[in-house]
Amino acid sequence: MAAYGxxxxxxxxxxxxxxxxxxxxxxxxxxxxxxVEIGSRPSTLSFSGAVDRALGLAGSEDSFDRxxxxxxxxxxxxxxxxxxxxxxxxxEVRLFTIGxxxxxxxxxxxxxxxxxxxxxxxxxxxHQADECVAYxxxxxxxxxxxxxxxxxxxxxxxxxxxxxGGPDVMKAQLDHLVEFAQRPNTVVQVAxxxxxxxxxxxxxxxxxxxxDKSAIAYAESQSRGHLERExxxxxxxxxxxxxxxxxxxxxxxxxxxxxxxxxxMP
Length: 266
What we know:
This protein is an alpha/beta fold. The protein has 2 domains: about 1-75, 434 Repressor (Amino-terminal Domain), CATH 1.10.260; about 80-265, 2-Layer Sandwich (Endonuclease, Chain A), CATH 3.30.870. It has helices at about 1-15, 20-25, 30-40, 45-55, 65-75, 80-85, 110-120, 125-140, 160, 165-180, 230-245, 250-265, and strands at about 90-95, 150-155, 185-190, 205-210, 215-220, 225-230. Strand 5 (about 215-220) and strand 6 form a beta hairpin. The protein is elongated and about 70 Å long. The termini are far apart.
């Protein structure tokens, strides 16, 4: 946001325009222009499009629309930044993941290995991967706040069995899962492979209960995410989550499985 605002100010001043003149050309107020330039007001796609038209940058590699999309999402799926903003307010967080330990439970070393895979596949730059890890560590701060939310986690067994980063990284990650399960505000369960077709969910799912008792859900595919607020849809997803938790291992049996996986590592 700061870099976006600084570039906007530089290009405006290069043309000899005041904030009022740019405001007149974009249809936004000079106060809005000022807020974006100093980084106190976030950019939006509609604002970026108006700026591009005023500055003659529409459709170019240097367009503000392109930069806005990078600022908003980077290597994160669409909808996820908005989900995280709501996660900070939640009183209950419910997570289901497949293949990878949930971000809130990842150690820094595990997280760096996962994002390193993005770089190796050409899906992110080293800088973006570093920002992803920093973003995750910032997100984990909700676990340490005075009124930390209740965290309910169901992991597919593949999260434990899939090796990430070698034995040392995996051992530390499994140790952290055991410690996490012992906290007073957490419930950690594993959906075992033996559940088979009874597992009601096949994609990662995040459900938040907010202070007013309303609930929102976030689900994602390989290429996009979607934040769901419609009560009927969220209720259906919450029911599926409860069915999943009921079929999953108890927390005690989950800890035993994690410890056995830890012992079986070279």
